[in-house]
Amino acid sequence: MFRTIAVIGACTVATAAYYASQLMRYSSEEEKKRSIFGKSINWKSLAFTAVDDRVRGGRSQSHLTVNREGTAAVFHGHLDYTALGGAGFASQFYSKPGSPYNLREFQGLCIETEDGDGKTYAINLKTEHSPKRPDNRNASVVEYKYLFTPGPERQTFFAPFEEFKPYYRGRMLDEDRLVDKSDIKSVSLMASSFFAKQGGDFSVTFVSVSAYKN
Fold it and tell me: 147-174 as b/e, with b when 16 or more CB fall inside 10 Å?
């Protein structure tokens, strides 16, 4: 009887130690990440603004549909590049309220997706606000872009900050320019035609976007 109790006690201690080690491991992994969208910060569709090529006379459009729990967001819409001679884009834009993101301690962004359609998407970072033009539209500024192609399965993309390339009005700049990761004022999710290389309906589910460090 005492042997049975001892065995049960040993198993209980071992189980508790296992779960404690798993909790410590999980906590350590979480300390290496900072949630931006998803995980500990729920997705909110009202926090995003559609910025599509219709501002330039195009016909593309985008939507961000968040599930009831706020744990995932479907980025979907339609790309039409015929109106602008091959150029077309649709995006959901988030401007960080208050102070910008200071991600100096982090190496890049971790993007989790599922139910992708095989099209190429971009996550864009801006370190300056767009000034207003005389016609009250926002002027173009340099943005830093990372491209990825999500498929139907659950995927995780690691996007190092040094791989975000500078673009201006849809074209990559021929210069060695890195994003200032201590001063990120906005983040956007984008579908682009890449000058008539892709178009039509698009859809991908974003589970989370977070900053990571090694």
Answer: bbebeeeebebebebeebbbbeebeeee
